[in-house]
Specification:
This protein is an alpha/beta fold and about 270 residues long. It has a single domain, classed as Spore Coat Polysaccharide Biosynthesis Protein SpsA, Chain A, CATH 3.90.550. The protein is built from 7 helices and 10 strands. The strands form 2 sheets. The chain has an 8-stranded mixed sheet, sandwiched between helices. A two-stranded antiparallel sheet has the order 9-10.
């Protein structure tokens, strides 16, 4: 029998981003009224409630790194799968619960799968046709491990996290760990052109602590109030362009400062 309820939503945030929570959870409730999962708000000390949603905040206290707090949160969760979201993934269309539950079921039936990434990228993936609308990530691909909306095998995610890392380090060095030796699990991603399961602004509403310039229009359309003066706006938000091919020497792997940066972050390789 399919047990697609064996999943917990983890919303990764922090106390300093509490101004985003009313908008995030209002839109979550609006566009996912039949949400079947418990929600854990991964923050430091604050609690938060929203009508019609079952939200729990564990509250591990301040002075804890992003990686350590997330690992402690995941270890306290009982379900085998977790749906990882960031606090600025503002929904703008209904969630496709049936297709998400398919992913939960597929992961339960195939323990070699570590992750179903629910937002497409612009890299070339493998069309293995095992799972409808999903493609297998190549092992040598940037950001196989990432913080976009995704369904994770909880234990596998714990194994890839490191206490000293922030979210950006986790994406970069977690990808290296997954690629070379920490796991032989498989990573799948929603194919380009496939209908979205979880539809939110590409990359999230916040960039480097400031609002994207298109967010007032989005929240106005959704009739969600927000005080944008607290954070201000970034000057420009550059979205990924699939037509631009970055030369290897200029890519994230080939940058000149990489060697010294990797030496500095030697702990992230283990």
């Amino acid at each position: 029998m399919r047990n697609t309820k064996d999943c917990t939503i983890v919303v990764s945030s922090c106390d300093a981003y509490r101004d985003l929570w009313p908008a995030f959870f209002a839109l979550l409730k609006r566009y996912w009224p039949d949400c079947p999962y418990k929600i854990v708000l991964n923050t430091e000390t604050l609690d938060f409630k929203w009508p019609g949603l079952e939200i729990e905040a564990f509250g591990f206290g301040k002075n804890m790194t992003w990686g350590k707090r997330l690992r402690k949160t995941l270890k306290k969760i009982q379900t085998d799968q977790v749906l990882m979201l960031l606090d600025d993934f503002f929904l703008q269309a209904p969630v496709d619960t049936e297709r998400l539950e398919n992913c939960v079921y597929w992961m339960q039936q195939n323990p070699e799968i570590a992750n179903f990434s629910l937002f497409p990228d612009y890299f070339e993936n493998i069309k293995d046709e095992r799972f409808e609308n999903f493609e297998l990530r190549k092992r040598v691909t940037a950001y196989v491990v990432n913080c976009q909306a995704g369904l994770w095998n909880r234990k596998e995610l714990i194994s890839l996290l490191r206490d000293h890392e922030n979210a950006w380090q986790f994406e970069e060095f977690g990808t290296i760990r997954a690629r070379y030796y920490k796991t032989r699990k498989k990573f799948y991603i929603l194919a380009n052109g496939a209908p979205l399961i979880f539809d939110y602004p590409v990359g999230g509403a916040i960039h480097r602590g400031k609002w994207r310039q298109d967010m007032p229009d989005l929240l106005a359309r959704e009739n969600v109030e927000m005080d944008f003066s607290k954070r201000g706006f970034i000057e420009e938000h550059i979205l990924p362009n699939p037509e631009i091919k970055v030369p290897f020497a200029e890519s994230w792997w080939g940058r000149k400062h990489d060697l010294s940066r990797y030496v500095k972050n030697w702990r992230s390789y283990f």
